[in-house]
């Protein structure tokens, strides 16, 4: 497959994702949080990266409430360099504002790199069973976690995609910069990827 077919996959899945009715969105977000509660050892002090969703993305409010109940430390991404497409993670305390891409992010700027997190729940447009992730195309997450490609086995962080089940594809052609997911949580449960979990 070439980059045009990745682009076509992205467009088709984004259309399907936008068409999900609000009641189904709420039910899926609640189900995903329930699967995470059962499958992951959430505990006090665990450093969790979570995204602030765009309107079509799977909502993370239920997940953030769950993490808060378990006294996890919750971090949100903040873009630090739009031209170089860089971001780091800020503890989710205090005010949030929308960045130039329309994503809510913490106002404060002091944070940690991806290496400082234990679990990171990432948004996606599509995924496959090998852990290949099709994102929005800007590469922020691939750059933030590029260090994970340099060594065969990193214990932390574990990269967990959040998605609707229809976002799973039979195959996504990988690119050299892609960082694979360890698992994906959908409304139907946890999909353990071949990359490990």
β-strand percent reads 15-25%
Structural class: alpha/beta
Q: What's the Cα radius of gyration? A: 16 Å
What order do the helices and strands follow? HHEHEEEEEEEHEEE
Overall number of strands: 11
Output the number of helix runs. 4
Biggest sheet details = 7 strands, mixed
Helix fraction, binned, reads 10-25%
Going by CATH, the homologous superfamily would be NagB/RpiA/CoA transferase-like
- Domain count, please report it: 1
CATH topology: Rossmann fold
| Mean pLDDT figure | 88
Report how far the terminal alpha carbons are from each other.
27 Å
Secondary-structure map:
Elements: H1 3-18, H2 22-39, E1 47-49, H3 61-69, E2 73-81, E3 86-91, E4 96-98, E5 104-106, E6 119-122, E7 126-127, E8 133-134, H4 140-144, E9 158-162, E10 183-186, E11 189-192
Helix pairs in contact: 2-3
Protein model, in words:
With 197 residues, the chain is of the alpha/beta class. The protein has a single domain (3-192), classed as NagB/RpiA/CoA transferase-like (Rossmann fold). Helices cover 24% and strands 23% of the residues. The chain contains 4 helices and 11 strands. The strands form 3 sheets. The chain has a 7-stranded mixed beta sheet with strand order 3-2-1-6-9-10-11. The longest helix has 18 residues, at 22-39. The radius of gyration is 16 Å and the shape is globular. The mean pLDDT is 88.
In short:
The protein is α/β, with parallel strands linked by helices and 197 residues long. It contains four helices and eleven strands, in the order H-H-E-H-E-E-E-E-E-E-E-H-E-E-E. Strand 1, helix 3 and strand 2 form a beta-alpha-beta unit.
